[in-house]
Amino acid sequence: MTDYQELFSRVMMKSAPAPLAVLARGEGARVWDVDGTEYLDFLAGIAVNALGHAHPVFVDAVSRQAARLAHVSNYFATEPQLELADRLTRLSGGDRVFLCNSGTEAIEAAVKLARLTGKPRILALENGFHGRTMGSLSLTGKPALRTPFQPLLPGVEHLPSSIEALEAALVAGDVAALVVEPIKGEAGVVELPEGYLRAARELTTRHGALLILDEIQTGAGRTGDWFAFQHEGIVPDAIALAKGIGGGFPIGALMTFGAASELFGPGHHGSTFGGNPLAASAANAVLGEIERADLVGNARTRGAELRARIELIGSPLVTDIQGRGLLLGVGLAEPVAGIVASRALDRGLIINAANEYRIRLAPPLIIGDEELHEFTRLFAEALQAVPSNYLHTDPGDTA
Ligand SMILES: *Cc1c(COP(=O)(O)O)cnc(C)c1O
User: Fold this and answer.
1) Sorted alphabetically, which keywords does the UniProt record give (predicted)?
2) Per the count of CB atoms within 10 A, which of 16, 237, 259, 310 is most buried?
3) Dihedral through CA 349, CA 350, CA 352, CA 358, nearest 10?
């Protein structure tokens, strides 16, 4: 039998961490590794597999489109592409869409949009995540990811997540855009202060800056509304999308609203693969099924149940639960998230240690009673299985 770990460490770029398992197939909310071990998937490819794995609607759409027309150049349009653009504008209330292939590319488009305002500064938040290519990395607020690649884009500033810091940064009137996640996903699902997005909308409008929301992780129904900004009753100038909208097919999008839709002109931006008929068909199928089966509603109700079940476990390790719908972050009193995730994996449950103090949960939007029940049992066991010598660390340590 192939020694996959040895092969991985020999041929994969060292940028990739050692794999937790080598997965071979999936169905619904479950995946199996090459040895046939079954796992309940409460990470869903990091909020990507909205319909779970191998959903017949997804499989059918991709297979049919591959057999019909997979790719054309941007000198031509296709029906799936136009249908997707129309669908995204309808679901979000936006006006125009630029289609690309990943989250980081959606943010690159947002950075170019911001530059087209002619103003020099772009604001983002400390501890935010927007991707790893050079433009989006410039916005990402994690020093460990940024430092090795400096110098990055000039004109980008990282602010603390407070309304006062935002107001102070905007007063000079030379800010092109604020780029912000409605919920900080990579930080371990951390909420913004209450009212932040509404205040950000008001302040950016007053000071002539764009409000660009990174909904790459929060979009496509995950938080219990189609897009997280819709909970707040605001209209942004742009939203970046990826992850869940393709349900596993790589795709990204930048949607603009109102006047921001007039900033890009002919020749300003493009992508060979962006919005090709194969990717667009996958996204149409995924978004269509989310709508047909009311998975947005399911994310809302199952998310509330999931949160209640975690609270009921009553583990002294759990300090807080943040997030919305089926994007939840569980805070821990000790830096043991990696151990909890590994104990869960041993029991056949995939969860994510976003950092040492936070567990991220992002199951497929299709989950029901059975999955919730099984999750609760396995997660409780995993929390229980943290050896006591890892607990009660030096009280001088702070989270
Ligand atoms: C995943 C993610 C990105 C980057 O998307 P990629 O497809 O990995 O390039 C950017 N922003 C947020 C909020 C994300 O969750």
Assistant:
1) Amino-acid biosynthesis, Aminotransferase, Arginine biosynthesis, Cytoplasm, Pyridoxal phosphate, Transferase
2) 237
3) -10
